Amino acid sequence: MPELPEVETIKNALELLLVGRTFSAVRIIDERPVQRLSPDEFCSGLVGRKITGISRRGKYLIIGLSDGSNLIIHLRMTGALLWNPAEEEPFTRVEFFFDGGGRLIYTDVRRFGAMYLVADPKEVVGKLGIEPLSRGFTRRALADMLKPHSLPVKSSLLNQEHIAGIGNMYADEALFAAKIHPQQPADSLATTQINSLHQAIKNVLKKGIKNQGASVRNYRGPDGSKGRAHEEFCVAHREGHPCPVCGSPVKRIVVGQRGTYYCARCQRLK
DNA sequence: CATTGTCCCTGGAAGC
DNA sequence: TGCTTCCAGGGACAAT
């Protein structure tokens, strides 16, 4: 599942591959991911445009085009962008072709992913919360964000209008690193807990990027490669494995309809 | 406004 | 073995 570190990894790879290239054709095999525009409008809006830059906001990829418009892609659960794949992908939904050769395919088994072609990225990402690796993400910002909410702290971390880019895996990892129980009400965290959580969020995301993302299920980079971040996960998707700190088995519970992994001994409700 | 619930989707795992 | 059932989960939207 692509979260911030995975999308950042994809962005870095696509930057090298795509910037400067011009769309020559777009083939929509399944129109479900194309939002707001008809397939024809989407294709004609891309063909002839050059890619000027690629950025990330939360879990969204933003591909800037020469006419000032933006192709924005969210991979959701199972989406992947693959550059010149060696083999045919069975769940290819959209294909992008470029002048001078080169093909980028969008594949997505579950078809949850979405793509937009808009003049202003704000039309899609305008309501997202703060970037957790930006300077603005201070301990104070985190405290102010958690304070007005009584829901479980994990649910608060997953709210993209609070912090952008944290998903199920990295929320669990951050809470483990900060020794906070995922069900602790957001408004009940002590200052020391908030400070730990603030540091933990930055650490787990940075480590995730350093390890090229986590391939817990089917994440792949544009060259088809998997990430290594999951190899260093302490609790996420590790039910029954020993906690790396105390050795007790990692538990799985459901918090806000999401599978949640934690160490019942290291992460106590306070 | 804050929060909870439902839905989308389909391969793979689990159960019989 | 082969069929059926259940589950994962980000985010939009509806309901409370």
Describe the protein's architecture and organization.
- The chain has 270 residues and is α+β, with helices and mostly antiparallel strands.
- It has two domains: 4-125, MutM-like, N-terminal (N-terminal domain of MutM-like DNA repair proteins), CATH 3.20.190.10; 139-262, Helicase, Ruva Protein, domain 3, CATH 1.10.8.50.
- The protein is 26% helix and 21% strand.
- The chain has seven helices and ten strands.
- A hairpin with a 4-residue loop joins strand 6 and strand 7 (103-108).
- The radius of gyration is 19 Å and the shape is elongated.
- It starts with a helix and ends in an 8-residue tail after the last strand.
- The model has no long low-confidence stretch (mean pLDDT 93).
- The protein binds a DNA duplex (16 and 16 nucleotides) through loops.
Topology:
Elements: H1 4-18, E1 23-28, H2 39-46, E2 51-57, E3 60-65, E4 70-74, E5 79-83, E6 92-98, E7 103-108, E8 114-118, H3 122-125, H4 139-146, H5 153-158, H6 168-177, H7 191-210, E9 251-255, E10 258-262
Antiparallel strand pairs: 1-6, 2-3, 3-4, 4-8, 5-7, 6-7, 9-10
The structure holds a DNA duplex (16 and 16 nucleotides).
Q: What portion of the residues fall into strands of 2 or more residues?
A: 15-25%
**Rg calculated over all Cα atoms:** 19 Å
The total strand number stands at 10
Q: What is the top-level CATH class of the largest domain?
A: Mainly Alpha
| Sheet with the most strands: spatial strand order | 1-6-7-5
Instruction: Give the helix level as a range of percent.
Output: 25-40%
Low-pLDDT sequence parts: none
How many discrete domains?
2
Distance between the termini: 30 Å
Q: Helices and strands, in N-to-C order?
A: HEHEEEEEEEHHHHHEE
Mass-distribution shape: elongated
Instruction: Name the average pLDDT.
Output: 93
Main sheet: strands, sense, barrel:
4 strands, antiparallel
Under the CATH scheme, which architecture of the largest domain would be assigned? Answer: Orthogonal Bundle
- CATH fold-level name of the largest domain: Helicase, Ruva Protein, domain 3
Helical run tally: 7
Structural class: alpha+beta
